[in-house]
Structure formats: structure tokens, C-alpha cells
Design brief:
The protein is mostly helical and 503 residues long. The chain contains 21 helices and 7 strands. Strands 1-2-3-4-5-6-7 form a 7-stranded mixed β-sheet. The protein has 3 domains: 166 residues; 124 residues, no CATH class; 159 residues, Ribonuclease Inhibitor (Leucine-rich repeat, LRR (right-handed beta-alpha superhelix), Alpha-Beta Horseshoe), CATH 3.80.10. The protein binds heme C (HEC).
């Protein structure tokens, strides 16, 4: 009888895998140095085809590594008996990570439109992740052959791989979806925690109905943001064209001028949009939502007006078509106005609204879809809109949230009707003949947040009546009779209100 000795562990496996791992890592590490930066237009032909499988394949190593982590967490609690080995799934993690990295490398070489800094970081992250999983797998082979020796370090390696994966996939997501894809809609407390600014305040969205708005920033940018920015931004510059900055938007990409002020027909942006939908060069490309007709009208109009950057709506020539198009822009619902009270407007009121909408085309709108709140802008009517017309709005005034009567011929007599507009949040009376007489009425608008009295006859004594309006956040008093002493007094009484004057 010979004593049974435990079988000598075989190290052939670990040696083989370690050797392969070193080779693979060497190849991956040398790849960027050997290939250099992508050429001018990127690799053509089959490379373009293959590279696009990168976003498909990359989910494999991510899922596999998660599985490995779950298995190992289970093993940690299973004690000596041990659970299922994570070796096989780890092998597939490493294999798929190498394939994903190689495909990513081909994509990088065939698509030179991405933001160089971000794409390079993502590239090195991906290569490093592939190398790390390969090395971890080789290490795992040794751990198994040595009967669990080094298992603790193996777990640390796994966690390291997961961390690299986290960073790398975040960069990857930023490349495809643009920075902030994950955080843009995060609730404000979370954004604060992450050191991000609060989301856009609803005040700016609610301003989308008055002549004071800056056309480029408040009308054009939101359109481009929805339809074009996703591929033409800092991180992703298809056709080497960035549209998210005014100068670059005009400058264009590799084909030259993007926008030629004053000539929409010759502007590449419009040319591309107006190509037939099945043309390869049509923008946005197939599968993306086309511009709505009213968006195209506005874009062309803005370009033909000289594509100004700072000009207000009221200072540009507006045709009926453009006015209609502006009326179709619905301010995006933001967190705050989603919560706004939705008056169940009666059928009578609805009929009234429809009648008034026919009377004043494009001037009367719902604040946002499904809201019981209304907005009215007389910006297209100006002098033609007076007390008589305002009186026609009387039935809907209680539901009015925003009212723009700037530069109309409305007088103090008409303004007295606004006493019933108790839900009014924003009121513009700039450039009217309004005097102190009206301020008594206005001081009764308990919900008012923004009041524009620019260029009216109001005096320092009169505006003191507004001091009781707790919610007033913006008060515009340029070119009024309000003197410096009264202003100082008012500012003391209303510390939370931003009072804008030329003084
Ligand atoms: C899904 C991604 C995507 C979206 C969205 C997109 N584009 Fe493009 N764009 C591309 C690609 C890719 C190219 C480069 C290939 C080409 O020239 O057709 C390009 C090129 C262009 C060019 C030519 C730039 C140059 O000088 O070479 C213009 C102009 C353009 N896009 C305008 C637009 C406009 C306007 C929109 C929004 C209405 C838009 N794009 C939305 C992907 C996109």
C-alpha cells in the first residue's frame, strides 16, 4: 500500500494563460502608438462598417463583469465550501473586453468627429480595461491552481476593473449622448450634491411669449438644441461642425459657412435641412426627428434677418407666418409649472378661448399643453391693441398667467380690468401710457413675479405701492419718472426683488 499523496497541482494552465495575457496586453498597449492619430477623414470602407459594432459589443464585458462581481460576492458569504467559480465568466469578460476595445479602436480610427480629448481618454480607458481584465483572469488561474492563495488580492483586482469600467463607460456615454446625459434631469438636490447648477428656472421658459425675448437665445437655440446639438456639440462634431456656439454655428464645418447672415437659401444648414429626406446629406440624418415646419420657418426667418445674436423679437420684422410659428413654440414644461394648478376650465371658457384665438391669431395660448393657464402676447399687434381689445379678453383674464401688452395703446382705463387677473405671474406694460393710477390695480396682483414698466409714466411715489407684493422677483423701471431716492427706498422695502433701472 502506498500512501496516497494529493495530486501535484498542474501549473500548465496558469503558465499558458499568463503567457497569452502578456502577449495580448503588449499588443493592446502598443496599438495606439503603432496606429497614431486618425487620418483626416478617418479610415474608409470596411473599417467604418466594423467600428460601428463597438457600441453593440461593449455591453457584453459590462454585463459579464457584473456577473463575476455577483458570483464573488456570493462566494464571500458561502465560506470554505465555496460557490460556483467565477473563472469562466471572467474569461468571457476578458475576451469580450478585448474585442470591444479593438472595435472601439477601429471606430476611433474611422470616425474623427469626436471631441479629441474625451475620445482619447475613453480610448485609453477602454484599452486599460481590456488589459486589466486579461491580467485579472491570468491571476485568477494562479489563485485556483494554488488552492485559493491570493484570493483576497484577486477580489481587489476585480474591484479595480469595475472602477475602470465605471469611468470608461461614463466617458463613452458622454461621447454618444453628450455630456450631462445622465444628470440633466436629475432632481435639484442630487444636482447640488454633484456640484451642478440647478435646472433652468421656469421663469425663463415662461418668458417665451413676449417681444423682449432674445431671438437667438430663446427661439433659435432651443430648436437647434432639440434637433441638431446631439451630433454637433463640443464632444461630437459630425462633419467637424459645432453648432452649440454662435460663432461656430455661423462658421460651419469642413464644407464651409454653416450660416450666411441674410441669406438662408445659401446657408448650408438650410440647404441640408431642405434636401429630400432620403438624401444621404439630409439633416438631421435618417432616424432622427426632422424639423417641424414652424421650426424651419423660424430658422430661415432668423437667418434672413441677419442671424443676429442679441436682438430682441420686438426689434425684428415679423410676418404673419412667423407670428404663427412663434405661437406654436410651447415652452417646455419644467418641474415648477408641472405642479402649477390646472384649472378645470369649463366648456364655456374653452369656447371663449377658441373664439379669442380666432380673433387674435397666435396671440393667445395655453401656458403649456394640458394647462388651464393662458398666455397672451400683443407683440404682433402693438398699437392696434387698445383698451377695447383688452376688454374682449375679460372673460379669460382670471386664467391668464402671462400677459404682454408692451407698446400697445392700452391706457390706465384698460389696465383697471386687470384687477380680475389674479393668477397673473408675468405682466409687461413697457412703452404704454401707463401712469401711477394703474399701480393701485397692479398692487392687487398677489401672484405677480415679473412686472415690466419700462418707458411708462410711473413715478417713485407710485411704485411704492408695489412694495407689498411679496412674490415680485423682477421689476423693470428703465426710463420712468422714478428717481434715485425713491429707488433706494424701494430696494430697502423689497430686498428680494431685482429692480432693473438705468440708474
Ligand atoms: C444623428 C446625428 C446628427 C444630427 C442629429 C444632425 N447631424 Fe448634421 N451631420 C451629421 C453627420 C454624420 C455629418 C457629416 C456627414 C455629412 O456631411 O453628411 C453632418 C454634417 C452636417 C453639416 C455639414 C457640415 C460641414 O461643413 O461639413 C451640416 C451643415 C449639418 N450637419 C447640419 C445639421 C443640422 C442643421 C442639424 C439639425 C437640424 C443636424 N445637422 C443634425 C450628423 C448629424
Amino acid at each position: 500500500m502506498t500512501e496516497s499523496t494529493p495530486p501535484r497541482p498542474s501549473f500548465a494552465g496558469p503558465f499558458f494563460f499568463s503567457f497569452t495575457a502578456i502577449l495580448l496586453i503588449a499588443v493592446l498597449a502598443l496599438l495606439p502608438f503603432w496606429a497614431g492619430k486618425p487620418v483626416e477623414d478617418g479610415l474608409q470602407g470596411i473599417a467604418k462598417f466594423i467600428g460601428r459594432f463597438h457600441p453593440v459589443v461593449l455591453h457584453l464585458p459590462i454585463g459579464m463583469l457584473v456577473w463575476v462581481l455577483i458570483l464573488e460576492t456570493g462566494n464571500l458569504f458561502a465560506g470554505k465550501a465555496g460557490g460556483p467559480s467565477s473563472r469562466m465568466p471572467l474569461m468571457f469578460t476578458a475576451l469580450s473586453a478585448v474585442i470591444a476595445a479593438l472595435l472601439g479602436f477601429v471606430l476611433y480610427q474611422s470616425t474623427p468627429d469626436y471631441d479629441a480629448e474625451l475620445v482619447e481618454r475613453h480610448l485609453y480607458g477602454g484599452l486599460f480595461f481590456a488589459c486589466a481584465t486579461v491580467a485579472t483572469f491570468a491571476f485568477k488561474c494562479w489563485v485556483d491552481s494554488l488552492d485559493g492563495l491570493g484570493a483576497g488580492f484577486y477580489r481587489i483586482l476585480l474591484l479595480g476593473c469595475a472602477a475602470v469600467m465605471g469611468f470608461t463607460s461614463h466617458d463613452g456615454a458622454s461621447l454618444t449622448h453628450g455630456k450631462g446625459y445622465l444628470t440633466d434631469h436629475a432632481p435639484d438636490p442630487l444636482r447640488k450634491l454633484l456640484g451642478l447648477p440647478e435646472r433652468k428656472s421656469p421663469k425663463s421658459a415662461a418668458a417665451a411669449d413676449s417681444g423682449e425675448q432674445i431671438v437667438y437665445r430663446e427661439i433659435i437655440v432651443p430648436i437647434l438644441e432639440r434637433k441638431c446639438y446631439s451630433c454637433h456639440n463640443v464632444d461630437k462634431q459630425k462633419g467637424r461642425y459645432r453648432m452649440d456656439e454662435y460663432e461656430l454655428l455661423l462658421k460651419g464645418g469642413k464644407e464651409g459657412d454653416g450660416i450666411i447672415p441674410g441669406n438662408s437659401a445659401a446657408s448650408n444648414v438650410i440647404v441640408r435641412i431642405e434636401l429630400p429626406g432620403d438624401d444621404d446629406e439630409h439633416m438631421p440624418p435618417e432616424g432622427k426627428k426632422d424639423l417641424d415646419p414652424h421650426e424651419l420657418v423660424l430658422l430661415k426667418w432668423w437667418i434672413d434677418q441677419g442671424a443676429p445674436m442679441e436682438t430682441r423679437l420686438a426689434d425684428l420684422a415679423v410676418t404673419d407666418e412667423v407670428r404663427d410659428a412663434i405661437g406654436k413654440i410651447v415652452p417646455e414644461p419644467t418641474a415648477e409649472n408641472e405642479e402649477a394648478p390646472v384649472d378645470e376650465s369649463s366648456n364655456v371658457l374653452k369656447a371663449e378661448i377658441q373664439r379669442l384665438q380666432a380673433e387674435f391669431p397666435a396671440a393667445l395660448n395655453y401656458e403649456f399643453q394640458g394647462s388651464g393657464q393662458l398666455t397672451f402676447t400683443a407683440v404682433g399687434l402693438r398699437g392696434k391693441f387698445g383698451d377695447e381689445q383688452l376688454a374682449m379678453l375679460k372673460p379669460v383674464l382670471p386664467a391668464m398667467a402671462s400677459l404682454d401688452l408692451s407698446h400697445t395703446s392700452v391706457t390706465d382705463k384698460g389696465v383697471s380690468l386687470l384687477a380680475s387677473a389674479t393668477n397673473l405671474k408675468s405682466l409687461r406694460l413697457a412703452g404704454t401710457s401707463l401712469s401711477d393710477v394703474s399701480l393701485e390695480t397692479l398692487s392687487g396682483l398677489r401672484n405677480i413675479e415679473s412686472l415690466n414698466l419700462y418707458g411708462t409714466q410711473v413715478t417713485g411715489q407710485g411704485v411704492m405701492m408695489l412694495a407689498s407684493l411679496q412674490g415680485l422677483g423682477n421689476l423693470y423701471l428703465w426710463q420712468t419718472q422714478v428717481d434715485e431716492a425713491a429707488l433706494k427706498n424701494l430696494r430697502e422695502k423689497m430686498p428680494d426683488c431685482e429692480i432693473l433701472t438705468g440708474l
